Amino acid sequence: MKRFYIIFSLLLLSAVMRSQQFNDARQAVTDLLEPLAERQLIQKDYSELLNDLVDMYENPLNLNTATKEDLEKIPFLTDHQIEEILFYVYNNGPILTIYELNAVKGLTPETIKQIIPFLKVEPVKELSKQTNRLQAEAIFRGQTTLQTPSGYRSVNDSVPVPFLGSRERIYTRIRANYGNTLFAGFTMEKDPGEPAFSKQIPVMDFLSGYLMLKPKGFFKKIIIGDYKASFGQGAGLWTAMAFTKSSVTTDIRRRASGIDKYSSVNESSFLRGIAAEMQFRSFRLSLIGSYKKIDGTTYGFSGITSIRNDGYHRTLTELGYRKNVTEMIVGEIISWQSNSLKIEAGQTFWKIDKLIVPSGIPYKFPAFAGDSLYTTFAGYSWFTKKLIL
């Protein structure tokens, strides 16, 4: 029994230390993101980007093996700076120390300070000797308010409480990976005011999970479950977070990352189903298929006026909109890439089982109406030393 208490105490201490490390990483990334968010002209939800950067903070990229796609995940780097880093490694060989970034053309001391937490330097020979190992982590987080907000109080006995759930926000995330080939994750969340483990919502309001495989050979990536997809400049398909117009011109270009696992708690910006990415030499083919339930503001018996993406299900009205529309998306994208040129084309088909009916409000007249949308898109990007087309 004494041994049991010792083991339990060590596990509890490890969990507390891991939680503290996660909070420290989250705060460090938040501090770095604040200046970037302030220069955006349109306010956006940065939770997805925050989670991705926390992952990179805890598992930094190796500069000697990082690809262009890897470096594009760091929002503090411009496209020209990424090209200069890759050119430096190609021209001078493996980097020996992280401080060698001072010799890279175009990197300012401020930029180096921002990107250092997400980078590391390891010899390529040592990486080849590393064996696959199983890693796992679990994060549990709760948040509440001391005072009771008005949404949780009844005006009088004849008027029910507006919010059906408790005022706590509960978040759970469990992830595991085996080397760099197999990834799995599961996420649960309950927003303040939403009922959980009740008649309205049997478990928690948002449940998400994925299984991603990165095999060697023809198949580059296979994902089953929830994933995000971003291609081109967002005109055809884009579910990942993207920056908008700002005072910095380099924020205009969106960086497409293809398909990737989804572990955020945004209840609308993801696809659910299966996706695969295949590559043969310079050609890459991506196939996506998604089938999920989404929220819609009802109009009559068979129509909706709009698709809801706020993710709140606190009142009887909001619960009535919860997952009342079925959405299906299929698509294929093919691309070819060289060192400086990338050409991409694809097509997607989107369909829901309810008709979107125009509301009749004048400023909403150009809004989409119908139940299906077929999109074909094509694009290119070309880089030179001082020019991006």
What would the keywords be for this entry?
single chain; 389 residues; alpha+beta; 13-stranded mixed β-sheet; 15 strands; globular; disordered N terminus
Share of helical residues: 10-25%
How many distinct beta strands?
15
* SSE pattern, N- to C-terminal: HHEHHHEHEEEEEEEEEEHEEE
Q: Please state roughly what percent of the residues sit in beta strands, choosing from under 5%, 5-15%, 15-25%, 25-35%, 35-45% or over 45%.
A: 25-35%
Number of helices: 7
Major sheet summary line: 13 strands, mixed
Shape: globular
Kindly report how far apart the N and C termini lie.
69 Å
Instruction: Give the low-pLDDT segments.
Output: 1-19
Radius of gyration: 23 Å
Mean pLDDT value? 84
Which class of secondary structure composition applies to the elements? Answer: alpha+beta
Task: Give a verbal description of the structure.
It is a single chain. The protein has about 400 residues and is of the alpha+beta class. Helix content is about 20%, strand content about 35%. The protein is built from seven helices and 15 strands. The strands form two sheets. Strands 3, 4, 5, 6, 7, 8, 9, 10, 11, 12, 13, 14 and 15 form a 13-stranded mixed sheet that branches. Strands 1-2 form a two-stranded parallel ribbon. β4 and β5 form a beta hairpin. α1 crosses α2. The chain is globular, with a radius of gyration of 23 Å. The N terminus is likely disordered.
